[in-house]
UniProtKB/TrEMBL annotation:
Positions of the MARVEL domain: 15-222
Pfam families: MARVEL
GO-annotated cellular components: presynaptic active zone; synaptic vesicle membrane
Chain intervals for the UniProt region annotation (Disordered): 237-293
Ranges annotated as biased composition (Polar residues): 281-293
Similarity comment: Belongs to the synaptophysin/synaptobrevin family.
Location (main, coarse): membrane
Membrane topology: Multi-pass membrane protein
Protein name: MARVEL domain-containing protein
UniProt keywords, alphabetically: Glycoprotein, Membrane, Transmembrane, Transmembrane helix
Superkingdom of the source species: Eukaryota
Subcellular localization(s) per the UniProt record: Membrane
Membrane-crossing residue ranges in chain numbering: 25-44, 101-124, 136-157, 200-218
Length: 293
């Protein structure tokens, strides 16, 4: 508990109130929603086959399927309406690649968002040191934004195929007994795919969040100064201080005295005295003039 309290005391949780940290919290939450609604799905469809010989009928054929939607491995038994044992049939299609890719991106987004929040709260100074942490964060954020775009589009197409492959009207066509007119085949229960539709929506919401976060991370990278036009070309730079000493500006003013101020040459004692007053050299006659007299 002491370690936890110390970490909490040292944490800078005000970053969560800023866009940089707040969007990371949203990314963390919606990543959970995305991979959980897809990865935890299980559905069922139900059909009935009524044969001419009622004793051979099966009015409750149930077909269950779940993530990762390897439908070609899902089987069910259906009556042949010709006596004997029922036939074993399999659904059509394997859509595990798009579903697993979507869930993988969701899990890694969840982990990275949690790690980034920890960095923001506890080592924000190192994150902003030399802008290295922010630059890495920007690159990773851009990669995740692209991956959310690809995975969401792929899973949306995969979900459309899953709906088609699990449509009871389509599955009924796989049953040979339904090809005969004296037998009646109908769907009893359609699978509920509202959770899968929600997972696609969460995928595109994550795409928007990661794209929007690019701007706030970009402002932390320091790259904005390079694009703001603050660079001064070499021909507009001011000359170095030593150049003034060699030019006319650094030479001693002939009218300036040794003390840095203007001192008249009326007498040897002229100028300002130590008390700050002006000496009597101004009223005194020059020495050379008195000798001539």
């Amino acid at each position: 508990m002491d370690v936890v309290n110390q970490l909490v005391a040292q944490g800078q949780f005000t970053i969560i109130k800023q866009p940089l940290g707040f969007i990371k919290v949203l990314q963390w939450i919606f990543a959970i929603f995305a991979f959980s609604t897809c990865g935890s799905y299980s559905g069922m469809l139900k059909m009935s086959v009524q044969c001419k010989n009622r004793s051979e009928s099966d009015l409750g054929i149930e077909v269950e399927f779940e993530y990762p939607f390897r439908l070609h491995q899902v089987y069910f038994d259906a009556p042949t309406c010709k006596g004997g044992n029922p036939e074993r049939l399999f659904l059509v299609g394997d859509y595990s690649s798009s579903a697993e890719f979507f869930v993988t991106i969701g899990v890694f987004s969840f982990l990275y968002s949690m790690a980034a929040l920890s960095v923001y709260c506890f080592v924000l100074e190192k994150y902003r040191e030399n802008n290295k942490g922010a630059q890495i964060d920007f690159v990773v954020t851009a990669v995740f934004a692209f991956m959310w775009l690809v995975s969401s589009c792929a899973w949306a197409k995969g979900l459309s195929d899953v709906k088609t492959a699990t449509d009871p009207e389509r599955v009924i066509t796989l049953i040979s007994a339904c090809d005969e007119q004296e037998n009646q085949c109908r769907e009893v229960y359609d699978p509920k795919v509202s959770g899968l539709n929600t997972s696609v929506a969460f995928g595109f919401i994550n795409l928007i969040l990661w794209l929007g976060n690019l701007w706030f991370v970009f402002k932390e990278t320091g790259w904005m100064a390079a694009f703001s036009g603050t660079y001064v070309p070499s021909q507009e730079k001011q000359p170095a201080p030593d150049s003034f000493g060699q030019g006319g500006y650094g030479q001693q003013d002939p009218y300036a005295g040794s003390q840095g101020g203007y001192q008249p040459e009326y007498g040897q004692q002229g100028g300002y005295n130590e008390d700050g007053g002006y000496s009597q050299g101004y009223d005194q006659q020059p020495t050379s003039y008195s000798n001539q007299m």
